[in-house]
Design brief:
By secondary structure, the chain is mainly beta. Helix 1 runs antiparallel to helix 2.
Length: 882
């Protein structure tokens, strides 16, 4: 009986017959050997041409997520057989190895080893020998998680069998690229950019197709949302995650139906963490993984250790610790680019570096024949500081420095239930994220130091329940996924300033970047996929999103009290002179804090449609449409106060009328996957997508008018009309074992709306922050426009049975534009990197890289002149597994 693999959860439950016998010898036709002999029923679509053993096992592992090993005694160039059809992993291996003199040994729940065949008899008499034993059903963990494949920079093969704009950064790609920050891992993904406007703040802000910040792109760790936002001159989003514990990064560039779609306007990035099987080698009950990296140009160290053990066959535990320290690096010296060359004054450094500590604890358990549970706690502690000049220079202006201590805790629980039923494949996810940002803001003006310790925090609790059911109908196979999800944001800010302003405490404005309040978002969804033929797949989905924001926003104004001061001249007989007697008060200003109680809610129905076609082997054209919806964040809805300490509090005010954003996104694309294209052991993978997106009610900084104070304040407003993003994304890779070449490219055009309704009239946009010009109130250009063209090319050679790899990478950007106060046009640049690795054996590898080989001076896309990119940097890393 064959069971379908439903959903992408990656854990396939199956009914298996496990044969055990003291005299058991497997038949030649099965190509199996004794050991952990499980006969699984998780099936996959295989279409493999005759090829070398190395290529075949790589393809099977990429499709299934299994770990397949073979030793030096097994020739990697052994020619294997063609494999085609819906098969289990062992069935695929059995067909591939038939007649080769090789066989497989099951060494774990989802791992096998290829060994030389033992002399055996081609019969099955042992099946009726009276001593064989039928054991209980078992689980095989398979699927997309953690797998590497033949795609660009190790992208697993399932990406090229999925109709949509998906990308994956594999574990192999993560290990091969020592990075100053986890955001560097996204640089080679088509259509995806990481904002670099916040100095060396390790927080990650992802831009997908021109959308970023304020949860427009949902950022997650193991499905737990990282919703923290804080206002500043750079990007507002902050997600803190260490690359040491990431097993893969899943990227969806569209959004729509399914878990993770609630409040998702423009896509998602999910950082998935390591599991025990990533650390424990086949045949062992425990494992230890060590990764250490260091380099030049203040790449001081990046080290981690992870240990895992199987306490029982059904329970495993994983724990890890990492530490990373990056210093004040030097930028490049070659090139003609406008860069702020002054980096320090009075000990305040613009490039101050960062120090990050992370830890992980995870437990994985099978609670029964068809239930699995995973619990994870991830902690990230980051310390860093940023500094700079307030304006033209130290003699004419002053300096400011902010020191940060950020602690981010994420706890997740995942329960899966798959009871061998076409109707049930249930996932239950619960999670909690809490980010605490302690900031010490210090500003020096004309020799006077002002400081204000601020405490910002956001706690988010959420979860989801979804189920997948399969029906065999007269019209074809029907798969239905349906469920609910939701989350609750609770923000709180406290500030203690050391300077009062009359009746105000001086901290009114500093609480505005991350206001105190709550936000609830709930969603119900359903989608159905019909496959009327083996070459056509039709999917329709519908979800309903609803939100509610509650809190108190505030703004300041001053009330002028008229003068009652009167004086008269009287004769003082005692002094024999005239004197003046005055009564009353002179005119004076009273600062007033005005509170605005906000309770706003709204909802929307959001349809989605996908059609995928597969009439040709390996070629899959597809089209997609999705309506998406994003409620305002607490910062957007409740923001108020002043710009920074020492400034006028008459700056910002909340906008109770702020509406949610919505978008319509269209895609047309094609997947292509082929093995044995020009020769028996080569592979080609390609995904190309064209897209068009229109965003209504885009939220940006503008102005609002307050009657009570008769004043204009900066606030978040909805832009009129639509903002448009359109472009083409392309990723491809050709691998022939001894060499490989791949590329990713993005062509992007953005056209953001530039008007909004102010005080009943239309106001025009401008390139500066809330500028008043010729009596016209203008909107703020807070947008970071990605480059119109971005290209990464990667190629390499492999030697000595593919144990030595030497490669190079080219990155070209057409520049871009950084918004905010200091609008900066990023110039075009082309950067070259080289890298290599030597695999001593299956447990040890040495890697090296030289980034920015030409020592180019440039400002990266989505960055500013205050923080140009690092110059030439050498790094080396050692990866050990025991």
């Amino acid at each position: 009986m064959v069971y379908r693999v439903l959903g992408r959860r990656g854990v396939v439950c199956f009914a298996s017959l496990l044969l055990a016998s003291t005299s058991f010898v497997p038949p030649a036709s099965a190509q199996s050997s004794s050991g952990n002999t499980a006969v699984e029923a998780g099936v996959y679509d295989f279409n493999l041409q005759p090829s070398s053993l190395a290529s075949t096992v790589a393809r099977i592992g990429a499709v299934s997520g299994w770990r397949i090993f073979y030793g030096g005694s097994v020739p990697s160039d052994t020619l294997t057989n063609a494999v085609s059809g819906q098969l289990t992993v062992t069935e695929a291996l059995g067909r591939a190895l038939q007649g080769t003199g090789l066989q497989y040994e099951l060494t774990g729940s989802r791992s096998v080893s290829i060994v030389s065949a033992m002399p055996i008899e081609d019969d099955v008499s042992y099946l009726d020998d009276g001593v064989s034993t039928f054991l209980d059903p078992v689980y095989v963990t398979t699927g997309a998680g953690g797998a590497s494949g033949a795609g660009f920079m190790g992208t697993p093969d399932w990406v090229y069998d999925t109709a949509g704009s998906l990308s994956v950064v594999s574990r192999d790609a993560i290990l091969a690229s020592p990075s100053r920050n986890a955001r560097d891992l996204l640089d080679n993904v088509a259509g995806v950019y990481a904002n670099r406007s916040n100095g060396q703040d390790p927080g990650i802000s992802v831009n997908i197709r021109g959308l970023q910040d304020q949860n427009r792109v949902v950022t997650m760790v193991d499905g737990a949302r990282q919703n923290f936002q804080i206002a500043g001159h750079g990007s507002t989003s902050r997600a803190y995650v260490d690359s040491a514990f990431i097993r893969e990064i899943d990227i969806d560039k569209m959004g729509g139906s399914g878990v993770g779609g609630a409040g998702n306007l423009g896509g998602s990035v999910n950082f998935r963490t390591l599991i025990a099987d990533d650390v424990i080698l086949p045949g062992n009950d425990w494992g230890l993984s060590f990764n250490g990296a260091s380099g030049s140009n203040e790449f001081q160290y990046d080290g981690s250790i992870v240990a895992a053990t199987r306490i029982t066959d059904n329970f495993s535990v994983l724990g890890g610790y990492s530490r990373k320290k990056m210093g004040a690096y030097n930028f490049g010296t070659n090139g003609d680019v406008e860069i702020n060359q002054e980096t320090t004054i009075d000990g305040v450094s613009v490039f101050t570096g960062s120090e990050v500590e992370s830890s992980i604890l995870k437990g994985e358990a099978f609670l029964g024949d068809d239930i699995d549970l995973t619990l994870t706690w991830l902690r990230n502690s980051s310390e860093f500081s940023t500094g700079g000049y307030i304006w033209s220079g130290p003699l004419e202006g002053g300096t400011q420095e902010s020191r940060y201590g950020v602690v981010n805790n994420t706890v997740t629980a995942n329960l899966g239930w798959n009871p061998l039923s076409d109707l049930v494949d249930l996932d239950v996810n619960l999670w909690y994220n809490h980010l605490q940002n302690d900031q010490e803001f210090e500003q020096m003006l004309i020799g006077v130091i002002l400081s204000a310790p601020a405490h910002y925090e956001l706690g988010t609790i959420g979860g989801s329940i979804d189920n997948t059911s399969f029906f065999d109908t007269r019209f074809g196979d029907l798969t239905v996924n349906y469920g609910i999800e939701g989350f609750h944001d609770d923000g709180e800010t406290t500030v203690e300033a050391d300077f009062p302003r009359d009746e105000l405490t001086g901290n009114e404005g500093l609480t505005g970047p991350n206001p105190t309040g709550t936000r609830d978002v709930f969603s119900g969804f359903a989608s159905a996929t019909l496959e009327p033929t083996d070459w056509l797949s039709l999917t329709g989905g519908l979800r309903y999103d609803w939100y509610r924001i509650k809190g108190i926003g505030s703004y300041a104004w001053h009330r002028t009290h008229p003068s009652t001061y009167e004086c008269e001249r009287v004769w003082d007989a005692s002094t024999d002179s005239w004197r003046q007697i005055c009564t009353g008060e002179r005119s004076w200003k009273e600062w007033v804090k005005e509170d605005v109680d906000i309770d706003r809610s709204d909802g929307a129905f959001l349809p989605s449609v996908t059609a995928a076609f597969g009439p040709w082997d390996g070629l899959q054209p597809f089209v997609r449409y999705a309506k998406t919806f994003r409620p305002p964040t607490l910062m957007e809805q409740l923001w108020g106060g002043q710009h920074y300490i020492g400034s006028s509090p008459l700056t910002y005010a909340p906008n109770p009328s702020l509406k949610a954003e919505s978008a319509d996104t269209y895609e047309i694309g094609v997947n292509y996957a082929r093995d044995g294209w020009f020769r028996g052991d080569d592979s080609f993978r390609m995904k190309a997508v064209g897209f068009f997106r229109a965003v209504d009610d885009y939220i940006a900084l503008g102005h609002v008018y307050k009657d009570v104070s008769d004043r204009v304040y900066q606030s978040f407003v909805n832009l009129d009309g639509a903002s448009y993003m359109k472009g083409i994304e392309f990723e491809a890779n050709y691998d022939v074992g001894r060499f490989y070449v791949g590329a990713s490219a993005t062509v992007l055009s953005t056209d953001y709306a530039d008007t909004y309704t102010y005080h009943g009239e239309s106001a025009h946009g401008s390139g500066t922050m809330g500028q008043l010009h010729d009596g016209d109130v203008r909107s703020s250009d807070t947008l970071y426009a990605p480059p119109t063209f971005y290209l990464t090319m990667d190629a390499g050679l492999r030697f000595f049975d593919e144990r030595l790899t030497l490669g190079g990478r080219l990155t070209h950007s057409s520049g871009g534009k950084a918004g905010e106060l200091r609008a900066y046009d990023v110039e075009d640049y082309t950067v070259y990197d080289i890298y290599g690795s030597w695999e001593f054996n299956e447990t040890a590898a040495l890697r090296f890289a030289v980034d920015n080989v030409t020592n180019l001076a440039y400002v990266p896309s989505m960055g500013t002149a205050d923080l140009p990119a690092p110059g030439r940097t050498f790094t080396a890393s050692l990866n050990l597994n025991f």
